[in-house]
């Protein structure tokens, strides 16, 4: 790996000195480096491999960080990181205290916005363009957005706005026919037709010669914004493109692994005085056969064997919460044909694959459209169906308004399954599911449960489906506890907890995955002679007020533990309830949860330790509190 061109790139400006042939060699070196690192650390392999040439072309023509290059979702930004001075820390990709897997402004001046949630980059790019115009600046603004992210509502809102404003900016559509799974929706079908069109083939094959033959082509394109002849327009825009109707100048699909072709087109569109949509066709996973063959698996993958592409297996034999949910829902749906399952572009991630196969007519994938998915559920519920909406906790943030207005206000029977609730690990702050307790708890009519193991998840899903009104279940990413699953799910009593361990000195009121940590803390403190009660609260809303009051009356310290933000969390709710209606004795209360800051990436046990919400951290703070109470007495 010595004497690579990559090792000599200290900033993107260096790319301007390279020939296209050298850029091609650099593309191979970048792929090698991405694969070497991700095979150890895991990561978004296929998205990043797919945009190596595109990133090179952009950086070799732009003058970043003066110019702005944005990445929608940001999971495809590894080549960008390697070209912007981060080769030396690349081996820390997605590691605790290491380099983020997403663009992060605090990490580099070349990273513009904290991407991670799809479809926001066109809005941010337009904001940057408007700020430039107000300031009288001259920087170029470019965003790279995938075909799935472009179908998200936010992207369309921004295109609508930009098309009217007509300020220069470049939206590069990275069209690879894939979301995480195969892309869905009418836009995907439309792009498919466009790719298959005779014009695309012609454009691809003839691009070079067309460009060379027309010396003033770029000039013509710029002039298009001022209504230049249709003949030129036809050469550039083969067929109608819907974005053109929205006020964007659109290019023919450009072959996305041909650096020369990319640079030719980019050079032209960067000079345009109007907004341009540059359509680039790429292959997800390009250059690594296992990723090209299984772009869904290599979208976001754990460590893998570089030679074979085999993904390393987890050492745990426990099932994942997601797959327990998926199987339990299939079982429920077999018994109740009103159940429909909705996902927003996360069929695999939310464990709905089997459901989709068994009940294709009752499976709905909206694409990246969480707001639409939740409002759609309300229509289905009004129409007599029982919608189960499975969306990651972090992405459901997009659809809080629809939860409030479309579902909760009319008190509709919708079950929200918030997967990845709590810390998610390597994806970091954009993906941690730490806000859902706060944003669901505030909604009238909403009932909320958090299973402490996979058997509880099965009961809770069954319970949620039996209830009237909106119900949210929140469960974490990754392996469950490995307990036996019930033969038949039970309906749990609303608002009732279960005590998993009796104790009289301290009561820990724990929610979801925190029950396990609470039990660990109880074990540690038991060794020191402290008697700790652990209550698996099960219900966040309504929570078990009797259990809370008993804890207050019978123990000298009450502790709440949740894997969500403390501000607006359930610990605060319990404190408020104790203050509003105090029992005869109110002991001190400690609240454990996510403090008022963003938590970076890392393996979950490391993050739990950092935040003091692992068993040892909980035990330590309780120990300290008991000692200070003793010394005050
Ligand atoms: C709001 C939101 N919903 C869902 C996701 C999960 N997600 C991440 S990448 C992705 C697919 C992106 O596809 P595309 O934009 O075409 O990019 P590609 O991976 O194909 O390069 C999805 C659904 C997300 N990041 N943000
Ligand atoms: C980029 C993105 O948003 C997804 O790919 C996400 O990283 C998936 O996370 P999981 O691995 O938890 O499904
Ligand atoms: Mg795509």
In short:
The chain is 41% helix and 14% strand. It is α/β, with parallel strands linked by helices and 633 residues long. α23 (570-580) links the parallel β17 and β18.
Keywords for this entry:
Rossmann fold; 3 domains; single chain; binds 1-deoxy-D-xylulose-5-phosphate; binds thiamine diphosphate; binds magnesium ion; alpha/beta
Give an account of the 3D structure.
Residues 319-483 form the Transketolase-like pyrimidine-binding domain. It comes from Slackia piriformis YIT 12062. With 633 residues, this protein is α/β, with parallel strands linked by helices. The chain has three domains: 6-285, Rossmann fold; 325-474, Thiamin diphosphate (ThDP)-binding fold, Pyr/PP domains (Rossmann fold, 3-Layer(aba) Sandwich); 498-632, 3-Layer(aba) Sandwich (Rossmann fold), CATH 3.40.50.920. It contains 25 helices and 18 strands. A seven-stranded mixed β-sheet has the order 8-7-9-10-12-11-16, with helices on both faces. Strands 1, 2, 3, 4, 5 and 6 form a six-stranded parallel β-sheet that branches. Strand 17, helix 23 and strand 18 (589-594) form a beta-alpha-beta unit. Helix 3 (52-61) packs across helix 12 (259-270), helix 5 packs parallel to helix 6 and helix 16 packs parallel to helix 18.
């Amino acid at each position: 790996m010595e004497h690579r061109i990559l090792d000599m790139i200290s900033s993107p400006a260096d790319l301007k000195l390279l020939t296209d042939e050298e850029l091609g060699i650099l593309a191979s070196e970048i792929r090698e480096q991405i694969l070497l690192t991700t095979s150890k650390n895991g990561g978004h392999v296929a998205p990043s491999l797919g945009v190596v040439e595109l990133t090179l072309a952009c950086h070799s023509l732009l003058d970043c960080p003066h110019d702005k290059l944005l990445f929608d979702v940001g999971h495809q930004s590894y080549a960008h990181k390697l070209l912007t001075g981060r080769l030396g820390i690349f081996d820390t990709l997605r590691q605790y205290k290491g380099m983020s897997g997403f663009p992060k402004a605090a990490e580099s001046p070349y990273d513009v916005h904290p991407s991670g949630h799809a479809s926001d980059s066109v809005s941010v790019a337009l904001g940057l363009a408007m700020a430039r115009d107000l300031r009288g600046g001259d920087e170029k603004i470019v965003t790279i957005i995938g075909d799935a992210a472009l179908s998200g509502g936010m992207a369309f809102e921004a295109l609508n706005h930009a098309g009217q404003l007509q300020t220069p900016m470049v939206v590069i559509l990275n069209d690879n026919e894939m979301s995480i799974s195969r892309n869905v929706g009418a836009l995907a079908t439309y792009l498919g037709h466009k790719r298959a069109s005779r014009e695309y083939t012609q454009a691809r094959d003839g691009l070079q010669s067309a460009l060379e033959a027309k010396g003033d082509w770029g000039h013509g394109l710029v002039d298009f914004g001022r209504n230049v002849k249709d003949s030129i327009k036809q050469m550039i825009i083969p067929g109608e493109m819907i974005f053109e109707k929205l006020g964007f100048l659109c290019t023919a699909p450009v072959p996305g692994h041909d650096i020369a072709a990319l640079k030719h087109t980019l050079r032209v569109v960067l000079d345009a005085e109007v907004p341009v949509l540059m359509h680039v066709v790429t292959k997800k996973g390009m250059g690594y056969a296992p990723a090209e063959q299984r772009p869904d698996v290599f979208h976001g993958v754990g460590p893998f064997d570089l030679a074979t592409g085999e993904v390393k297996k987890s050492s745990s034999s426990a099932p994942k919460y997601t797959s327990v949910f998926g199987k339990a829902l299939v079982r429920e749906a077999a018994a109740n044909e009103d159940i429909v399952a909705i996902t927003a572009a996360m069929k695999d991630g939310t464990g709905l694959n089997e459901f989709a196969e068994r009940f294709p007519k009752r499976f709905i994938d909206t694409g990246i459209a969480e707001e639409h998915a939740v409002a759609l559920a309300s229509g289905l519920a009004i129409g007599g169906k029982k919608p189960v909406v499975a969306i990651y906790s972090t992405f459901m943030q997009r659809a809080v308004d629809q939860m409030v207005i479309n579902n909760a206000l009319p008190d509709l029977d919708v079950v929200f399954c918030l997967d990845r609730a709590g810390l998610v690990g390597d994806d970091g702050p954009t993906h941690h599911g730490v806000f859902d307790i706060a944003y669901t708890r505030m909604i009238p009519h909403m009932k909320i449960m958090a299973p402490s193991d996979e058997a509880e998840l099965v009961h809770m899903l069954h319970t949620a489906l039996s209830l009237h009104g909106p119900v949210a279940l929140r469960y974490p990413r990754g392996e469950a506890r490995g307990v036996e699953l019930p033969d038949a799910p039970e309906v749990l009593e609303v608002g009732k907890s279960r005590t998993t361990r009796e104790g009289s000195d301290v009561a820990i009121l724990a929610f979801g995955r925190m029950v396990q940590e609470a039990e660990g803390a109880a074990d540690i403190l038991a060794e020191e002679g402290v008697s700790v009660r652990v209550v698996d609260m099960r219900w966040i809303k309504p929570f078990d007020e009797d259990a809370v009051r008993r804890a207050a009356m019978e123990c000298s310290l009450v502790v709440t533990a949740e894997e969500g933000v403390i501000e607006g969390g359930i610990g605060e709710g319990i404190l408020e309830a104790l203050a509003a209606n105090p029992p005869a004795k109110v002991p001190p209360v400690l609240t454990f949860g996510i403090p008022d800051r963003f938590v970076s990436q890392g393996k979950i046990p490391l993050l739990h330790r950092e935040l003091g919400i692992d068993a040892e951290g909980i035990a330590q703070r309780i120990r300290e509190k008991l000692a200070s109470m003793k010394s005050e007495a």
